[in-house]
Description:
By secondary structure, the protein is an alpha+beta fold. The chain folds into two domains: about 5-130 and about 290-415, 3-Layer(bba) Sandwich (FAD/NAD(P)-binding domain); about 140-280, Elongation Factor Tu (Ef-tu), domain 3, CATH 2.40.30.260. α1 runs parallel beside α9 (about 320-340) and α1 runs parallel beside α11. Helix content is about 30%, strand content about 15%. The strands form five sheets. Strands 9-10-11-12-8-13 form a six-stranded antiparallel beta sheet. Strands 2-4-3 form a three-stranded antiparallel beta sheet. It has a three-stranded mixed beta sheet with strand order 6-16-15, with helices on one face.
Amino acid sequence: MRVLLYEMRPAKMTPAHHTGDLAELVCSNSMKGKALPSAPALLKAELASLGSMILRTAGETSLPAGTALAVDRKAFSKAVTRAVAGHPLVELVRQERRDLEDDRPMIVATGPLTSTAMESALGTVVGGDSLYFYDAAAPLVEAASVDMSVAFAASRYGKGNADYVNCPMSEREYQAFHAALLEGDRVIAKQFEDRELFSACQPVEEIAQRGVDALRYGPMKPVGLTDPRTGRRPYAVVQLRRDNSSGTVYNMVGFQTNLKWPAQERVFRMIPGLGRAEFLRFGVMHRNTYVDSPRALTSTLALKARPYVHLAGQLTGSEGYLEAAATGVVAALNVYAAVGGLQPVVLPPTTGIGSLVGYLHQGGETAFQPHHANLGLLPPLARSVRQKRARHEALASRALADMAAYLEVRPDLRVRGFRGPS
Ligand SMILES: Cc1cc2nc3c(=O)[nH]c(=O)nc-3n(C[C@H](O)[C@H](O)[C@H](O)COP(=O)(O)OP(=O)(O)OC[C@H]3O[C@@H](n4cnc5c(N)ncnc54)[C@H](O)[C@@H]3O)c2cc1C
């Protein structure tokens, strides 16, 4: 299909990009692990089966990085730019796109730093309360990695079902935790992430700074809870709440944070019950434009209010380079299917990409938060497997088998592969 591709750089830059090249990696040059059964490796295997040009180019420009796929960022974005700009069917327009008015199908992938004009165009279509401008999220923990011989399920004052998992702390544990929170390295806000963005949602380390008891009277208050191991009220608690309907992922309630990821891992592992926790996503607080996908998007990543406009990348509430590539492929295949009168492309929910898009479309149990692909989004196995590695292996093999079976029944989608000029 003929494509007009708008890119506003270099004429108009974002606060994070430095060049005019396409697919510029704004921060890390890593596309994460290659070794199955991790979620990033699963995403790579599935992207390869869908003919992803981004993944292929990453492979062609990779650097030695152990089991991770790291790329030479310059060579990578130059190769993507050459392939796109030189493709006979693609016309690259170096101009800001300011509206969604078009009677041709459109994919909007303007990213976390979308220009203001496009933000307001999107806001008009999805409704201002379905478009977010920053991301303040608490860490997510794999439910199976919580030590339930220490943590206990209960709601405050026994109200409703025992919907929360409580990690109880003694006075000594609390004081050590409080001190570690204050010492943890923080992300320095970039100039486009000014303090105003954070006023609605205080990071946990800022609350801790107000005084040693501030957290105990805030998100860590222990009232209405009895620790079954001691028969007493804990000194403080960290509460975990289900984050997806299958209960495989928990959210750390009220723990939005600006600590650096290694500090989060070290400090949050001090919480009783989380000593061996698997963090599926660390807390973040940064500028990020994305829509409330469960409200705004269909299962094919089209805007409910404009079915001919699809979203891809970070705008969909996905997060990460590979996730952007994955949602890009799903949006592109669906435009191709819609124009060609083919069935919509909804990948099985048991695949890595299908589970990510399913999460974007359906949301979780709590308010919508952006997500990396992770194995916690996959539906549980038919039989429970306790050992973590064996469970992840079984999830990954099921995903790959289901993706292969899906492509088998959709020969119309056999992507010929994107070939740039040699
Ligand atoms: C500071 C920062 C650091 C990050 N670090 C990482 C990291 O280390 N690892 C990781 O996996 N992810 C990281 N991310 C997230 C990362 O940006 C995304 O994972 C990925 O780049 C999203 O892809 P995208 O296509 O949605 O957006 P982008 O890669 O940002 O691409 C959007 C493109 O749209 C262009 N554009 C914007 N508005 C318009 C318009 N109106 N008209 C025309 N063009 C427009 C922009 O110039 C840009 O080229 C980071 C994000 C930020 C902001």
